[in-house]
Amino acid sequence: MVGGYGCSPRPSTSLKIATAANMEYAMKEIIAEFENNTTIDCDLILGSSGKLTAQIREGAPFDVFVSADMKYPETLFLGNLTTTHPRIYASGQLIWWSMTGVELDSINKNSLKQVKNIAIANPKTAPYGQAAKEMLTNTQLWDSIQAKLVFAESIGQTNQYIESAVVDLGITSLSVVKAPKMEGKGNWKIIDSTSYSPIHQGAVLIRSDKKTPSKEAKIFYDFLFSETVKAILEKNGYQVPQ
To answer: What's the number of CA atoms in the CB half-sphere (13 Å) around residue 179?
Structure first.
């Protein structure tokens, strides 16, 4: 039983949880825990927060949106597509990550001259990409490396580029290297969090076709803010609201 809620019969269709790509590993663990303690099934839909927001505006039948920022869910709220204001469930951190042996102790203009290409998520649609661009701008690196940048659709695709060594170096979420699947892969370094705005991540219940979200969707949404989920998020490299 999750959060003191009783169990309902299994729905004919699963809850659809639209989730920012940086949350892939943590969300898989969250959903497994949720399904093990309820009779509610969930489908995970991954993508950049911007693309998922566009799909929701176009009527995609998602039940819950777990974003990588607050801006996109707030936009949906203002469009009357959610039931409440977005609520922060976690805050993320940026890291440098490489599979090609790039020295990460001192990242600067000179050290990056030896790097052929650098992957970041698209700043226009992915909050972690926007944070990466802000960091690179604030540290006076953007202009000198802009020609080397490879823009991925999402953090998920950014990770694919880095892990497969398609690029020498990339900027991604700390949560990625904290996942058991990625343990010991490559070398990484946490980026000074004062060089970019806080990455507060928000979740909302979707008002599909102006209809009230289902009881099952509300149960999952409440579960996102439980102590159980907070422990999972912290283990995966996120900071959580106290």
So the answer is: 18
**pLDDT digits 0-9 by tens, 125-164:** 999 999 999 999 999 999 999 999 999 999 999 999 999 9
Q: For residue 55, give the H/E element and its range.
A: helix 49-57
Say how far apart CA 242 and CA 227 lie, in whole Å: 10
| Phi-psi map region of 4: left, alpha, beta (phi>0 left; psi -120 to 50 alpha) | left
Check: CB of residue 115 under 8 Å from CB of residue 236: no
Residue 214 has a CB neighbour count (10 Å cut-off) of 17
**What domains are defined for the chain?**
15-91+199-235 (3.40.190.10), 93-195 (3.40.190.10)
3-class state of residue 242 by DSSP: coil
SS3 content of the chain, % helix, strand, coil (to 5): 40, 20, 40
Q: How far apart are CA 164 and CA 166, in angstroms?
A: 5
pTM: 0.87
Contact 52, 201 (CB under 8 A): no
Q: Are 89 and 200 in contact (CB under 8 A)?
A: no
Sheet holding 149-152, edge to edge: 149-152, 118-121, 169-173, 94-98, 187-190
95 marked as part of a ligand binding site: no
Return the SS3 of 194: helix
Tokens describing residue 56: 């929701």
Residue 226 among known ligand-binding residues? no
CA atoms within 13 A on the CB side of 54: 8
